[in-house]
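Researcher: We're teaching a course module on how sequence relates to structure. For the next exercise, students receive a sequence and then see the predicted structure as tokens, so they can try to spot secondary structure elements on their own. Here is the exercise chain.
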Amino acid sequence: MRHGVHKVPKLGRKADHRKLLIRNLATSLILHDKIQTSVTKAGALQPIIERIITNLKKKQDDKSAIRYLQTYIFGEKAQKKALSELKPKYADKKSGFTRITPIGIRKGDATLKVQIELI
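Model: And here is the predicted structure for the students to work with:
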């Protein structure tokens, strides 16, 4: 049986490289509030960001929240921003923290570019 084979987009990379790519995208999204990327990368990033914010809201103390954020986000600046701005901002919202909107076609390889942003 082939249960769950296509749940995670492979993005044409090995597992370690894919994990680092998602972590870099997540860090950039938290720091800049919106980024432009391809459709498949945004689709792979969206559930990760949703999970990060949801679990961040559940953490009671800052030490456990920082330890949790260190597994997904690079840099102290992004971690502090997530704790000080995102946690209070989404305290009363249950889900739907991100929005993906198409913005056009990339010239180099004609792939669809999208903008993923924190609402």
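Model: If you want an answer key for the exercise: The beta strands are 34-38, 98-105, 112-118. Residues 39-58 form the longest helix (20 residues).
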